[in-house]
Write a structure and sequence with these properties.
The chain has 245 residues and is mainly α. It contains eleven helices and no strands.
Length: 245
């Protein structure tokens, strides 16, 4: 008898629970919206892709770069790279002699396919290639396995590259003035400011305004011939000038 009461109580409780849930869903069930209530225009502002066109060149900064700063910045890379001559590879390759070397130059290291393609194409780690790579590795080399975010400051990149340049028995030569001018466009600006050849010659040969030759060569009044001694018509200055024309 007591057992029947227990089962009855459980059954009644279950019925009440189901009924309550059904009624509650009818009362508070939300209507599904066709569109999001808050609209966010994700295309309102273009995303800065950080293109290479605006990237400053490091060439003018290399000769005076802070080598101590470059070595300090390289300390963040020792978890993956070694920098001593003949050093073992880590997660990344050894970077002794990397400046001017071929991309993917460490034989036997497992480079990414993206870097291996650059190696097969004969590309080198030039100053500007390192500049672009250190700025945004994944943008310069899509598909690289290097997870480094990059250096945004051009002086920091120049310092690091200048320090890497010293890691060689014979460091790569610094860029020439012509190479710096070509990278920065300063040579074109200087050429635009130079006067044309015709203009410079014209200015140098033009007579001064305060020394007109006509006035200096005019005959004095006291030396004019008398009226009865008028010179012959064939010796007049005007006619002599006409024959020169």
């Amino acid at each position: 008898m007591e057992l029947n009461k227990v089962f009855a109580a459980i059954l009644v409780a279950g019925i009440i629970g189901l009924g309550t849930a059904f009624v509650a869903e009818l009362i508070v069930a939300p209507d599904q919206l066709e569109t999001t209530a808050i609209f966010v225009d994700v295309e309102a502002e273009p995303v800065d892709a950080g293109g290479d066109e605006a990237l400053p060149s490091v060439l003018p900064l290399l000769a005076t770069a802070d080598l101590a700063l470059g070595e300090s910045l390289a300390s963040a890379c020792v978890a993956c790279h070694t920098f001593d001559q003949g050093g073992a590879n880590g997660i990344g390759p050894n970077n002794w002699g990397v400046v001017g070397a071929a991309m993917g130059h460490i034989e036997g290291f497992g480079y990414s396919s993206a870097l291996q393609e650059r190696h097969d194409a004969g590309e080198l780690w030039t100053y500007e290639a390192l500049n672009h790579f250190l700025y945004r590795p994944r943008e310069f080399l899509p598909g690289t396995s290097m997870s480094y975010a990059g250096l945004r400051n051009v002086e920091d990149r120049a310092a690091l590259i200048a320090w890497l340049r010293t890691l060689a028995e014979t460091p790569a030569p610094l860029p020439t003035e012509e190479e710096i001018a070509a990278a920065t466009g300063s040579g074109d600006e200087a050429a635009d400011e130079e006067p044309a050849e015709g203009e410079s010659n014209a200015d140098e040969t033009a007579p001064a305004e305060d020394t007109p030759p006509a006035e200096e060569s005019a005959p004095a009044e006291d030396s004019a011939p008398a009226e009865d001694s008028t010179p012959a018509e064939d010796s007049t200055p005007a006619e002599e000038g006409a024959t020169d024309q």
